[in-house]
Amino acid sequence: MSKPLENKLALVTGSSRGIGAAIAVRLAAEGAYVLVNYSASPERAKKVVDEITKAGGHAEAVGADLGSLDGPKTLIASIDTSFGGKFGGHLDILVNNAGTAEFGPFLETSDQSYDKLFNVNVRALIELSKDAAKRMTKSGWGRIINIGSAFGEAAPMPGVTLYIATKFAVHGFTRGLSRELGATGVTVNGVQPGPTNTELSPDDNGPAAQAMKKLTSVGRFGKAEEIAAAVAFLASPESSFINGENLTVDGGWNA
Ligand SMILES: NC(=O)c1ccc[n+]([C@@H]2O[C@H](COP(=O)([O-])OP(=O)(O)OC[C@H]3O[C@@H](n4cnc5c(N)ncnc54)[C@H](O)[C@@H]3O)[C@@H](O)[C@H]2O)c1
User: Which Pfam family, giving just one, matches this sequence (predicted)?
Assistant: First the structure.
């Protein structure tokens, strides 16, 4: 039996660990050829690629620092050459997952913080989406999935202001682009995770984590695989009538 994403090319940014790694593994299990982007750790990206190939899937690692202005261009160039040129510059699925956060009082943040957060969380996502949309509208099918956040809809606590600003931008961009591309066969959706156990989330036993758990109704952090399951659905042909949606996967945080 064929898999839902058989022979589709997927690019997942920031997929050497955390939610991105789980998304890469899941899309590959659904049949996609996956480009695993990393910025700092080729070893970790290799681990993800090895896990996928051992399971019979297809993956390649691509290094690109999305905090630098050249990062998105490097990643875009890799689409043309990936898997021995098998896809001829075609791209089916883009998951903009890479993200960075800083916690602390806004008045103590530096100009460098704005640049880093906005370059990785917003600028790179916009640039990659633009290139992906050009490729996808040519073929008449595509999925752009942006990983937002429960912090992209509300500001439930202090000390997260810049991150919140970037995620509101991500959610707005998702909706805006979905309006422009809807009739082309390319859908643009988001997944907004609630607190999920990764290196980005606060120490599981610390006071911040305890407070965040209380804001969910299930009383726990999510698992990266639970976020990946929602992404796999939005990436699949079955989501064809969903466009401009920021799908909440947050254990009831926003209920
Ligand atoms: N963990 C959570 O609780 C949570 C909640 C809501 C949203 N999110 C979002 O989920 C996404 C994944 O986060 P995560 O929890 O897996 O965290 P993580 O820190 O484990 O992973 C972030 C990923 O982004 C990549 N990244 C960071 N800076 C980069 C750069 N300059 N260039 C390329 N890649 C870069 C990292 O290498 C890593 O792979 C992010 O967009 C994050 O904002 C996470």
Answer: adh_short_C2
pLDDT per residue over 221-230, tens digit each?
Answer: 999 999 999 9
180 within domain boundaries: yes
How far is the C-alpha of 142 from the C-alpha of 188, rounded, in Å? 8
pLDDT score, position 203: 67
118 burial type by CB count under 10 A (0-12 exposed, 13-18 middle, 19+ buried): middle
Q: Is 69 a member of any domain?
A: yes
Whether 23 is covered by a domain: the verdict is yes
Q: Ligand 1, from 200, 212, 254: best to mutate by most atoms within 8 Å of Cβ?
A: 200
**Residues with catalytic function:** 163
197 CA: nearest ligand 1 atom: 1
pLDDT at 204: 66
Name the closest-CA residue to atom 39, ligand 1. 14
Q: What pLDDT digit, counting tens, does each position of 115-129 carry?
A: 999 999 999 999 999
- Point out the residues of the chain with pLDDT beneath 70: 202-204
Pocket of ligand 1 contains residue 14 by CB under 6 Å: yes
- Which of 13, 100, 163 should be mutated for ligand 1, with most atoms under 8 A from CB? 100
Number of domains in the chain: 1
- What CATH number has the domain bearing residue 51? 3.40.50.720
The response to whether residue 67 sits with its C-beta less than 6 Å from ligand 1 reads: yes
Do the domain assignments include residue 2? no
**What are the backbone dihedrals phi and psi of residue 146, each rounded to the nearest 5 degrees, phi first?**
-105, 130
How far apart CA 185 and CA 136 sit, in angstroms, is 8
Range of the domain at 75: 9-249
What pLDDT is attached to residue 199?
Answer: 85
